[in-house]
Amino acid sequence: MRLRQIIFTFVVSVFAASVCYADSKEETRVLDSADVVDQLLRIPEQGVPTRLFSSAFGVAVIPRVLKVGFGLGARFGRGVVVVRQPDNTWSNPVFIKLTGGSLGLQAGAQSTDIVLVFKTRASIDGITSGKLTLGADAAVAAGPIGRFAGAATDWTFSSEVYSYSRSRGLFAGLALQGAGITMDRPANAAFYGSAEITPEAIFASSGNAAPAAANTFIQVLTAQTNGLPIGPSASANATPNRYPGSQNKNLPEVRTFGMNTNPDDNLRN
Question: Region annotation Disordered: residue ranges (predicted)?
Fold first, then answer.
């Protein structure tokens, strides 16, 4: 338990230091996303259950989503998405945009942080292929809340996407029907320094191949996914693969991501 506290303190310290040196809007977006995940660590009774994170293909964080209208209004926001690597670390973040969709009546809330937990490879493929519409291309449900929610027998985590929002410091599950998620290609190009970079290439690389802000986000997210190692260390005996996430690591409650493989290969029987 003490080791876990030391690791958490280190991760938060790295995050705080990185915020001071953020020098681009893309880095700021990544660090804002890390802050949202950090808040999940601080309020486990009101956050995303660890079990749901542990079985996810990908996680998206969209901080400060703005409301276009009053009451039942559409939303717009920019964030990042990461996918599972074969060694159970997280990939570099890919920049995304979220548009449309109603979050229900939230009078007085100027902005909302959104967290999406993706359970299927098809949902991630939809984003990288052009656009994923929640509720149409992938079933989306309000996510369970709290550290013990995942232990309930009636929670089978059968939806493709689970959505969460945070306003005024509290997380709550929400049904984000009709919202569309697309690539933010200009942001990817600016952050990684290449106009030709693809989402597949970003997902296949480790945290050390990107600016420091990316690794900060990965470390904070790793601390939330209980039991997974911090850092982008890969197995020395791993078989080379164009998309490393396609390799089957045969670990309980974990699914890995591969762009050009049979998704059934990634499931542990």
Answer: 231-269
Tokens of 67: 């409301």
Buried b (16+ CB within 10 A) or exposed e, 17-51: ebbeebeeebbebbbbbbbbbbbbeeeeebbbbbb
Determine the Cα–Cα distance for residues 115 and 117; give it in Å rounded to an integer.
7
DSSP lists the bridge partners of residue 58 as 83, 118
Classify the phi-psi angles of 178: left when phi > 0, otherwise alpha if psi is within -120 to 50, otherwise beta.
Answer: left
Model pTM?
0.70
Q: Quick one: average pLDDT of 200-226?
A: 82
Q: What is the pLDDT of residue 246?
A: 31
Strands 180-183 and 131-133: antiparallel
* pLDDT at residue 252 is higher than 80: no
DSSP conformation class of 125: H
Q: What is the residue extent of each domain of the chain?
A: 2-232
Gap between the Cα atoms of 224 and 8, Å rounded: 9
